Amino acid sequence: MAVKRSSSATRMLAVFEAIARAQPLGVSALARLLDADKSAMQRDLMTLADAGWIRPAPGTGGQWELTPHILTLARPPHSNDSLRLRAAPILERLRTATGETAYLAVPDDDHFVVLGAAESHHLLRMVPAIGIVIPMHGSATARAVLPFLPESEQERLLGTPLSAATRREFARTRARGFAVNDEEIQPGAVAMASAILGGDGLPAGSLVLTGPAERLAPGRRDAIGEMLRDGARQLAQEIG
């Protein structure tokens, strides 16, 4: 027998996620954003506030923001088997060797989330915040991960059947072990990524290096890609 879902719980989660993405937000903006009744939004806001997840944003007159309570969920349990903890020394090594920001991204449904980072010491640098969402389309992370997924999942995530050109691109990525986004999402920014494959051969995440295009010039990319690939393979071995 199918289990009935709770529509009110689903709506409240949508409210929480909307505030997380665009805080501070007021009840009217939330109602427009979620196409919902204002009174229902108000009930959800008060429930979340009473539970300690949100609070009135100072000086905004009726808008809401997340409380630090969210950080209790953002820190995974301390364990030697934690992907984040095992990735930390590899990220540091990549940062030291290249001078650029290195980070770990993990899949989360139809996008990716940054789980850990070693930030470049350059004054001009790319800094992905922990928890930031990485899109499926066009990112170096997606280009590194998608080639190792089953074809049905590739097509679902891309929203289209695979073209011959896409198949060739996926084959090249699998062969060399890394992918590149060359200023295609943010002008002036280059990102390179290598998939971390689990014991089942499916991606558990990716190691990513990002920096200004002038420092991540084409002549450096093969060497950096090899470092990313080797780091991803090491991490894959450590997590089994």
UniProtKB/TrEMBL annotation:
<dbReference type="InterPro" id="IPR014757">
    <property type="entry name" value="Tscrpt_reg_IclR_C"/>
</dbReference>
<dbReference type="InterPro" id="IPR050707">
    <property type="entry name" value="HTH_MetabolicPath_Reg"/>
</dbReference>
<feature type="domain" description="IclR-ED">
    <location>
        <begin position="69"/>
        <end position="240"/>
    </location>
</feature>
<dbReference type="Pfam" id="PF01614">
    <property type="entry name" value="IclR_C"/>
</dbReference>
<dbReference type="InterPro" id="IPR029016">
    <property type="entry name" value="GAF-like_dom_sf"/>
</dbReference>
<dbReference type="Pfam" id="PF09339">
    <property type="entry name" value="HTH_IclR"/>
</dbReference>
<keyword id="KW-0804">Transcription</keyword>
<dbReference type="InterPro" id="IPR036388">
    <property type="entry name" value="WH-like_DNA-bd_sf"/>
</dbReference>
<keyword id="KW-0805">Transcription regulation</keyword>
<dbReference type="InterPro" id="IPR036390">
    <property type="entry name" value="WH_DNA-bd_sf"/>
</dbReference>
<dbReference type="InterPro" id="IPR005471">
    <property type="entry name" value="Tscrpt_reg_IclR_N"/>
</dbReference>
<keyword id="KW-0238">DNA-binding</keyword>
<protein>
    <submittedName>
        <fullName>IclR family transcriptional regulator</fullName>
    </submittedName>
</protein>
